[in-house]
């Protein structure tokens, strides 16, 4: 299935999913073991984990699910789990092939968008124990790759067409289902390097972080496995080089997402050895990406730009890699091996909580034509406020009905817009809050940059103003956040 077929699948899923709801509601009555308070992540520990992830440099994505047996990219959520039958599953072969390419880790699609689970979940969702291959595929995968000395990650889709988890249908019971399944994955299969999420806050899935709160899932993951990186495929919603709602910036190279040059944040770029993510009948004899392209055009330059490469290799319907894929991975290994630690990254501010300023009333010194201040507070990185034409300074302000507290702020220029240009227009800026009728400075800066993040002492105010000086400066988002932090 491609994105254009999405609407058709949603209609089918809505009709099909109602039959599974009694099991989900029963499960939801049992609270999941999620921490009551936010988990404060140690920034130095997070930086070490991000660096260690980059040091792995090269990994294998493994898309195996019902779509493997359907000649599709998204499985049909109306089909029986009996269709799943990788009767000669050989996860040891997968691990050997990854080792031959000198990969450092792998990631398996435990549940794709159609909602079929590759482990024996107790949540009532369709899973391998109802299939023609009643074995725990996740267990076999993690055991084989750990035995081979490789790190393991798991992929999990938030979008779930069997359970009708999609935009504007999310309920507390459905959130409980997601939490219960993630809890199973993070408690039954040993330590994970990363949990990679998909189908959430993407333009094609549209399940927002407001509808299904990001921080609830983040807290759950960090409470169960503090050293597990949580990453989300949200580059389409949060373009550029910043860690919004992800520990590692995700780029789907296969979908045309490109890593900006000189990216300062830890990243991962995913693409495919074969033409698509899931196996097709033509794959045993079809053309594959060349070893030279993978190494010279992707792997090496990505590694030099604080990004590792994850290359998808699709198992066939027997649960094995085709001979041509195995041979190509060995060719890659003949051209490349991990030469040691990756280039060092600095600490990045990671945004995990909602933008307190999003959607609030906004004012400005003036605006050029229709680019009003509300567009700097709309949680949309493709709109922006622009100071009045010919002016070299301006301000925007957000006002709250009641005082709000924040300890982190972001200032983002619209460098994505061709009319604005690709260099910063802001020469200096300051952020102030109103106290007793006077403006009090919170932070200021004079270094131009696409993204400006500041962690400040927790501040409470009803009015917050950003002033910027430069050549008709613009702001795509001025964000205020109250991020959990460790005491002291």
Brief digest:
This protein is α/β, with parallel strands linked by helices. The chain is about 20% helix and about 25% strand. It has helices at about 5-15, 20-30, 45-55, 90-100, 135-145, 170-190, 215-225, 290-305, 325-335, and strands at about 60, 105-110, 150-155, 195-200, 230, 245, 250, 265-270, 305-310, 350, 360-365, 385, 395-410, 425-435, 440-445, 450-470, 475, 475-480.
Question: What is the beta-strand fraction?
Answer: 15-25%
> Reading side by side through the largest sheet, how are the strands ordered?
5-4-3-2-1-9-8-7
Order of helices and strands, N to C?
HHHEHEHEHEHEEEEHEHEEEEEEEEE
Sequence stretches where pLDDT stays below 50 over 5 or more residues: 1-36
- By DSSP, the count of extended strands is 18
Spatial extent as radius of gyration: 23 Å
C-alpha end-to-end distance: 50 Å
Structural classification: alpha/beta
Mean pLDDT comes to: 92
**Largest sheet descriptor:** 8 strands, parallel
Residue share in helix: 10-25%
Number of helical segments with 4 or more residues? 9
Instruction: Sum up the overall morphology in one term.
Output: globular
């Amino acid at each position: 299935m491609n994105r254009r077929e999405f609407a058709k699948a949603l209609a089918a899923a809505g009709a099909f999913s109602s039959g599974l709801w009694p099991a989900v509601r029963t499960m939801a009555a049992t609270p999941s073991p999620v921490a009551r308070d936010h988990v404060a992540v140690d920034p130095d520990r997070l930086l070490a984990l991000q660096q260690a992830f980059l040091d792995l440099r090269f990994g294998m994505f493994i898309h195996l699910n019902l779509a493997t047996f359907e000649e599709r990219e998204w499985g049909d959520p109306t089909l029986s789990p009996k269709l799943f039958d990788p009767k000669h599953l050989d996860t040891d072969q997968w691990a050997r092939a990854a080792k031959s390419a000198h990969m450092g880790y792998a990631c398996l699609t435990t549940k794709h968008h159609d909602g079929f689970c590759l482990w024996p979940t107790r949540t009532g969702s369709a899973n391998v124990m109802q299939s023609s291959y009643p074995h725990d595929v996740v267990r076999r995968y993690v055991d084989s790759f750990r035995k081979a000395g490789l790190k393991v990650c798991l992929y999990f889709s938030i979008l779930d067409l069997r359970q009708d988890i999609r935009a504007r249908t999310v309920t507390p019971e459905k959130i409980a289902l997601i939490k219960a399944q993630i809890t199973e994955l993070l408690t039954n299969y040993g330590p994970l390097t990363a949990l990679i999420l998909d189908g959430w806050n993407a333009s094609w899935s549209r399940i927002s972080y407001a509808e299904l709160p990001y921080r609830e899932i983040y807290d759950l993951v960090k409470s169960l496995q503090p050293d597990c990186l949580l990453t989300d495929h949200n580059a389409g919603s949060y373009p550029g080089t910043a860690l919004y709602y992800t520990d590692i910036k995700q780029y789907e190279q296969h979908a045309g997402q490109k890593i900006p040059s000189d990216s300062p944040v830890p990243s991962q770029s995913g693409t495919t050895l074969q033409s698509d993510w899931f196996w097709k009948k033509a794959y045993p004899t079809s053309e594959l990406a060349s070893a030279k392209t993978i190494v010279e055009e992707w792997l090496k330059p990505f590694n030099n730009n604080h990004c590792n490469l994850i290359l998808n290799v699709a198992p066939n319907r027997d649960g094995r890699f085709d001979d041509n894929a195995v041979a190509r991975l060995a060719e890659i290994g003949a051209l490349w091996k991990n030469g040691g630690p990756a280039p060092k990254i600095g600490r990045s501010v990671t945004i995990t909580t909602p933008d307190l300023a999003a959607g609030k009333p906004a004012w400005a010194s003036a605006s050029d034509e229709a680019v009003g201040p509300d567009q700097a507070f709309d949680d949309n990185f493709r709109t922006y406020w622009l100071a009045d034409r010919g002016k070299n300074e301006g301000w925007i302000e957000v006002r709250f009905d009641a005082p709000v507290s924040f300890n982190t702020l972001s200032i983002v220029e619209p460098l994505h817009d061709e009319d604005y240009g690709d260099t910063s227009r802001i020469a200096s800026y300051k952020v102030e809050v109103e106290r007793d009728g006077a403006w009090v400075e919170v932070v200021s800066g004079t270094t131009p940059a696409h993204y400006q993040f500041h962690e400040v002492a927790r501040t409470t105010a009803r009015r917050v103003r950003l002033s910027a000086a430069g050549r008709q400066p613009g702001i795509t988002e001025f964000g205020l956040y109250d991020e959990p932090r460790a005491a002291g």
